Amino acid sequence: MRTPVVLVTGVSPDAMDATLVSLQWDLPQAVAVRHHIDVERQLLTRVVSDVTGVLDRAEVDLEHACVSCALREDVVPTIERLARDGRWGTVVAHLPVGADAAQVCHVLTWDARLARHLRVAGVVTAVAGPTVVDDLLGDALMAERGVATSHEDERGVGEVASGMVEHADVVVVTGEREPAGLALLRTLARPGARVVAGPELLDGALVAGGLHDHAATTAWASPYRTQDVPSPDVPDVWQVDLRSDRAFHPDRLLEGLEDLGSGRHRSRGCFWLPTRPGRALEWDGAGGQLSIGAGESWGRRPAQTRLVLTGVGARPDHLEEAFEALLMTTAEEASGQSWQRPVDGFEPWLGPVREIA
Predict the structure, then answer these.
(1) What pTM does this model have?
(2) What does the pLDDT read at residue 126?
(3) Residue 164 backbone dihedrals phi, psi, to 5 degrees
């Protein structure tokens, strides 16, 4: 019988702690493990507890203080060790603040040895109600909040928090809750995911019982998702789904990234460039912070350019026009112009053209 594992993620330490406590008391046969990365000291702190109190506290020296090292060197091995112990019915893992659950889910799902006795039952993302809109759509950096996971962590809080909400089976809102924040969470979350207005309302048995659907979660969180996004059913939130089978023009995109990437909204999706026709390129932004990267090969899939933008309040009226202006025109596509350039300006983000195309 496989031991269920519940993963707790977030960018707010207080919200994550409140959610962990709620799960631990709602699941008296559970063991909880909390990991914290101390970037300055290059240390990973591990605390294991159950309803009887703290069972183990340890500090692990990391060769390089980062999420990948922490997950590989201690988080996953500790989850496995606690599950094999046999004393507890569920393992609740409080991941390091800012650490996404996707990597742990992937390992526990596809590592045959681990998958024989462990299963991800649920991914719970904890958010702070009073700051949820700023956390998702603001321009603060993880380092500015004191929750960076490494010295090289230049991610925006919005990018990290939005990705966690999109990957969650349950989103728990702690503290004061505003209608716009709850509506935004429901819009970003995967269809079927639950948004719970308070950790005291979290049903631990339901989460541990098996809410997580790895395939559905991966499809929703993927930058290449193909399913339609449900329209927001509240006036507080807007969303626009921009699609085309045409590529972005590399020169115009380089000059006009801010037209779609800046602003107080969440933007995510994929695109392609005629200079790199075989490669799916990823777009991940929030609050004016934008990351683009080289993804996987299109393979047999038709190349597409699709960005979904979500925000609160009045919807900007320039988005469709700006999107269209960045695309290759039909005349440009029909001109027969060669795009076998040695450089296209995107090398700092996507690597050399000759190695990617």
Answers:
(1) 0.94
(2) 98
(3) -65, -40
Which residue is associated with the tokens 């193909």? Answer: 226
pLDDT tens-place string over residues 154-201 = 999 999 999 999 999 999 999 998 899 999 999 999 999 999 999 999
Question: Are 172 and 124 contacting, i.e. CB atoms less than 8 angstroms apart?
Answer: yes
Burial of 116 from C-beta contacts in 10 A (0-12 / 13-18 / 19+): exposed
Q: Which domains does the chain have, with CATH numbers?
A: 3-221 (3.40.50), 237-356 (3.30.1220.10)
> Tell me, what DSSP letter sits at residue 71?
I
Residue range 60-69: average pLDDT?
77
Q: Where are the alpha helices (DSSP H) in 7-111?
A: 13-26, 67-70, 76-85, 102-110
Rounded to 5°, the CA angle 97-138-178 comes to 85
pLDDT band at 150 (very low <50, low <70, confident <90, very high): confident
Residue that is written with structure tokens 């921009």 in the block: 242
Alpha-carbon gap, residue 40 to 299, rounded angstroms: 42
Contacts of 209 (CB under 8 A, 6+ apart): 4, 121
The predicted structure's pLDDT at residue 356: 47
- The C-alpha angle with vertex 72 and arms to 66 and 74, in degrees rounded to 5, equals 90
